[in-house]
Amino acid sequence: MSKLSDLSAAGTAVWLDFVDRKFLEAGGLKKLVEEDGLTGVTSNPSIFEKAMGHGDAYDDTLAAFDEENPGAATIDRYEHLAIEDIKAAAETLAPVYDQLDAKDGYVSLEVSPYIADDTDATIAEAQKLWAAVDRPNLMIKIPGTIAGAPAISATIAVGINVNVTLLFSLDAYIRVAEAYAAGLEERVRQGQPIDRIASVASFFVSRIDTTIDKQIDARLKDGDAEAEALKAVRGKVAIANAKQAYAWYQDFIASDRWQALAAKGAQPQRLLWASTGVKDPAYPDTLYIDTLIGPDTVNTMPPKTMDAFRDHGTVATTLTADVDAARHVLAEADRLGLDLPGVTDSLVLEGVASFTSAFDDLLGAIANKQPATA
After folding, report:
1. Which of 125, 234, 240, 295 could serve as 329's disulfide partner, Cβ 3.0–4.6 Å?
2. What is the pTM of this model?
């Protein structure tokens, strides 16, 4: 058993933040499931851009699709490729899904970043992708924007699993957690079962430290009078923010509202730690795994971070440790004017813009792979 398996045993499910045709065909995902206890996969436009936009792994599939669908739109060509990969990952994870009785074993596919601020379009695309993949262990990724919250409720209400992405702030997380509960409550009103509906709330971590640490470093360079206090919170704000979200989660699942749903078989919306690759070489490369271990959570890792944890990660229940110290870090960040709310608001916009740019590049690369008859 690897350290990643130990991580799962401690309550933090191990998911892979990576999808690639060659990796799937070579049995790479199956190997992680068997050897490391991996129970899920996430994808996003940036991941697909790296997979599809370079090399020839998808060329034969695309050529066959083009022959059967002459003149197909670029978006349809992309979706065909993506859906094949997602189906393959879902099949590999199906035994996990069955063994865990729908509590895990999921693969995620994201709606277009172009519609992040359009509730109705998000609902429609979620339903379209759900039908196209046609696997019970699919999660549709919906951004946790203002427009995303009602889309999450509506999507859950019709029985579609949801991975809420691009969450940075406690307020945004609360909004989507309540949206998930509202979707389940609507299903109950309709007399529909809720025991096999699943959702995760993807709370991004490292990008917060990257942004705030830049502020801190600039102020230290300028000889800020609060230098020691700034140094004391450097690299700690993101983890404190995540611990604050988990504390809220614990309170919420103990509430009368959630307990009424749990009595009907509802599964908690697990917090998923995303953006867990360490950007600053001054920090341990397993920082955002070691410090966020606790029951009913998920950590989705890029392959390099997964390898690092397997080699030298530390398994201990850290998520509920030093919560008062985490509150102190957040209070200090506020006192020092580091503006965590402003940072998290900006990061949502930057995240949508980044995925949109990656999607632009992805569609451009696929458009350049013209059919031989064109």
Report:
1. 240
2. 0.96
Measured distance CA(26)–CA(300) in Å, rounded:
21
284 in the Ramachandran plot: left (φ > 0), alpha (ψ -120 to 50) or beta? beta
- The structure tokens listed for 13 are 């499910």
**Residue 326: is it exposed, middle or buried by C-beta count within 10 angstroms (0-12/13-18/19+)?**
buried
Q: At what angle do helices 237-253 and 170-189 cross, to 10 degrees?
A: 30
Active site residues: 141
Assigned token pair, 207: 């990008």
pLDDT in tens, 188-236: 999 999 999 999 999 999 999 999 999 999 999 999 999 999 999 999 9
